[in-house]
């Protein structure tokens, strides 16, 4: 079988950017050419204007095989310490002037090739003083991570070949990559010793010194071996692994640096307009319990009674032993409330979207999704086998354009009814019309419209006076309905399909009877006390006016009123000041909203008083002016 050497070099305005090489059988050549070209194009040092890929056949019999040098590591605390460790290694080799070799390397850096230092004469012997000696025609038999450059493996290949050169004593190397502070000393006697750090982060200083002895081999012999002899390294070690916690801690530190680090905080007392944090009473202006039903006496009683009658757990999945009368009762009530043939309850709204969308999205399906859709919709799309096409936020023209551009066998269009971070409302009639016209299933997430939109809180279809109905209405029991869980209201075939295909429905223990009893009771209270919905809608109008009086741009027809701040750090500071004044409005940041659009997300309840809302609007106005 013929073997080929393949070499890539990339430069920009004659400055070297990256290089790599392989020795490969013919069959692997095309993929390697592509991979190396891509690697040349994406290097941290910049985009090349010149890429050379050279392919040569080599004689299989001429190939020499060596096992990789054994690897060890020295972790130093500082660059100074790292250099000291290196000098000690050189002393073991009988080289007493290690410090001056390091100075020599720093003086000559940056240099592409290596300095060839003769221990017999203490002189530099590399024939080309500017470029230095190069080591080429080498590779390993080991598999390597193709996607990225593996500094370690490439260095080990080079070091092993070099260590076997005639007359070679050892090699010192410091990488010229500014991000890579680990260097090494390598020799046949001591193996490959990684030393970190050998330079400061961000320093592009780097280079190599080959230390040889001209009493053992002539300069020419050494150079010919290094530059021409094909060598293949066997028994390659895998790159040394870091402690797995290292990556976790690194990521956490980055989040903190970017003001994106989050923690949970305890609120004592039931979720209603007033709560306690760290013993201090606060006005809660960010809860999703829009109708204040999570603490309603009737709802709590219904939930408690369900525990007494049916216990604390449903004990099984819905399709095995977990369906109790309350599950079906609630489903019938939801179907009646949303005017659909039936309903299906899931454990959470998140699981509802995840299970429903992924079940409907098979290989032949395209899902068209609003760019600001809730994370649970996005995750459902990701989990499905079909492709997703994202259209511009609330832009029905863009949706239609994308529907035209992407013909498909089957399709779904999915949108929030009320967007959770902006509080704006879907143009449902247009949405449904496009669905019909392009023969798409239409699905709308009513997490923030149920109990909020429409004169009597039935949601987005009531808001548009029942002029149109999407195929699938999704909702949560966790927001206005003051409980926990999610649901789909739809036609019977779609519901049967989901019962059989939605994995988050099938493979989860059915929600507990107490949770569902609370939701069912809330649904009754909502219908018995429609004035709650009207009070909420009045509070929305009142608060928007109060904000306008403070010079704050705010407009919403829903319980969600975003106050745009922009900068993440500023939003955090404003929220902290408001907290000092007894107002609980957490800052919403990336990744929940796009970077640079951090905001205060006010969520109103039916039971906030006008005095409370006036106080809040004034405090927000003042805090925004302070920062
Ligand atoms: C909250 C929310 C969900 C998830 O509902 P949970 O019941 O909290 O899991 C889904 N979609 C939207 C738009 C939401 O705001």
Helix and strand topology:
Layout lengths: L2 E10 L2 E11 L3 H13 L8 E9 L5 E4 L3 E5 L3 H14 L5 H11 L5 E5 L4 E2 L13 E3 L10 H13 L4 E7 L8 E5 L3 E6 L10 E6 L6 H10 L2 E4 L9 H14 L16 E4 L2 E5 L12 H14 L14 H14 L3 E5 L2 H12 L4 E6 L4 H9 L3 E5 L4 H10 L4 E7 L11 H10 L3 E5 L14 H4 L8 E5 L9 E5 L1 H10 L1 H4 L6 H16 L2 H19 L10 E7 L1 H13 L2 E2 L2 E2 L9 E6 L6 H17 L1
Parallel strand pairs: 4-13, 5-11, 6-12, 8-13, 15-24, 17-18, 17-19, 19-20, 20-21
Antiparallel strand pairs: 1-2, 1-3, 6-7, 9-10, 9-12, 10-11, 14-15, 16-22, 21-22, 23-26, 25-26
Helix pairs in contact: 7-16, 8-16, 9-10, 17-19, 18-19
Sum up the structure in keywords.
elongated, alpha/beta, 627 residues, single chain
What small molecules does this complex bind? pyridoxal-5'-phosphate
Helix content: 25-40%
Quick check: average pLDDT? 93
Q: What is the CA–CA distance across the termini?
A: 71 Å
Number of helices: 19
Low-pLDDT segments, ≥5 res: none
Q: What share of residues are in beta strands?
A: 15-25%
How many β-strand stretches? 26
If you had to describe this structure to a student in words, what would you say it looks like?
By secondary structure, the chain is α/β, with parallel strands linked by helices. 36% of the residues lie in helices and 22% in strands. The protein has 19 helices and 26 strands. The strands form six sheets. The chain has a seven-stranded mixed β-sheet with strand order 5-11-10-9-12-6-7, sandwiched between helices. Strands 16-22-21-20-19-17-18 form a seven-stranded mixed β-sheet, sandwiched between helices. Strand 1 (3-12) and strand 2 (15-25) form a beta hairpin. Helix 7 runs antiparallel to helix 16 (513-528) and helix 9 (349-360) runs parallel beside helix 10. The structure holds pyridoxal-5'-phosphate (PLP). Pyridoxal-5'-phosphate binds next to helix 9. The site of pyridoxal-5'-phosphate (PLP) has 14 residues, from helix 9.
